[in-house]
Hints:
Structural class: alpha/beta
Distance between the termini: 27 Å
Number of helices: 17
Shape: globular
Oligomer: single chain
Order of helices and strands: HEHHHHEHHEHEHEHEHEHHEHHHH
Number of strands: 8
CATH class: Alpha Beta
Bound molecules: hypoxanthine, zinc ion
Enzyme class: hydrolase
Radius of gyration: 19 Å
GO molecular function, one term: adenine deaminase activity
Strand order of the largest sheet: 1-2-3-4-5-6-7-8
CATH superfamily: Metal-dependent hydrolases
InterPro entries: A_deaminase_dom (IPR001365), ADE (IPR028892), Ado/ade_deaminase (IPR006330), Metal_Hydrolase (IPR032466)
Family: Belongs to the metallo-dependent hydrolases superfamily. Adenosine and AMP deaminases family. Adenine deaminase type 2 subfamily.
Amino acid sequence: MTQITALESFVRGLPKAELHIHIEGSLEPELIFQLAKRNGITLSYPSVEALRAAYAFTDLQSFLDIYYAGASVLITEQDFYDMAMAYFRRAAADQVIHAELFFDPQTHTERGIAIGTVINGLVRAQAAAKAELGVTSALILCFLRHLSEDDAFKTLAEAEPFLQHIVGVGLDSSEVGHPPEKFARVFAKARALGLRAVAHAGEEGPPAYVWGALDVLHVQRIDHGVQSIRDEQLMQRLIDTRMPLTVCPLSNVKLCVYKHLADHNLGQMLARGVCVTINSDDPAYFGGYMNQNFVETVMALNLTAADARQLAANSFEASFVDADARAAMMQRLADYCAAHGV
Ligand code: HPA
Ligand SMILES: [Zn+2]
């Protein structure tokens, strides 16, 4: 029998925010098969087990190929609702009290699905998550960086009727060879529309891509950013400006950024005062939701209860909620920690 330590139990119960979750990456194999059946789609894998067995990745691209194939079962508004609700239930069980969800409209509009079908399904799930689970959330529209900036402009135009449902834009998919500068104009347009900006940078790509995200895209958070440690001037910039990094430890191991979780630089970054947060990225593919990421990271890096508290506080600090909501989340964290003597 596994003994749950006091530290593990404290970490599991911590109120936390998740800021780096691709909602299409929460699609579990069981739900992929269920939706394929509902929509009359034949998958190229004979069973849930065969599909899961294919989740052996060597790098980001090897994952993306299978991730886009999995998302092809999403057709109706109800499909997007069901996917998001399944995620919100898992998040609530992990004491995620606020989540900011990435979604990839181009993955769906390329297949002839209207952007409204995607957004309406997600928005309906957000309302249900708040009412039934007490989880608040926001949506971040990500542009696929392997596609052109023109395509991103087209996507932003399609999203304009739904802007009240979207808090910001992001940049994901194949990083190397697609630097932030490629999307300078569309990010400027999105910011002019009042949207926040984030971007994946320094997952596999060099520190130069993090500089580009900061200085050209003017992002308010860096997604991943772990390669920043190779550039001391960049590290100082991140520390001095409290620029948040949404780090995804189990993802980094699954995609071979680190061989072992114990090699991860999150502990070092945290100790130096970088505003690092822990997130699940694509939990259905990478072997764990929030608490799995939190617990395994705390254990592998020998972090303390105070470190875990700081990580949760960072997640609220880095979130895009208003000042009152942030203060309420920080208070919940303070109350929880006081009750546990941390
Ligand atoms: O980890 C990721 N990196 C880049 N693009 C992605 N799209 C889903 N997950 C990821
Ligand atoms: Zn990601």
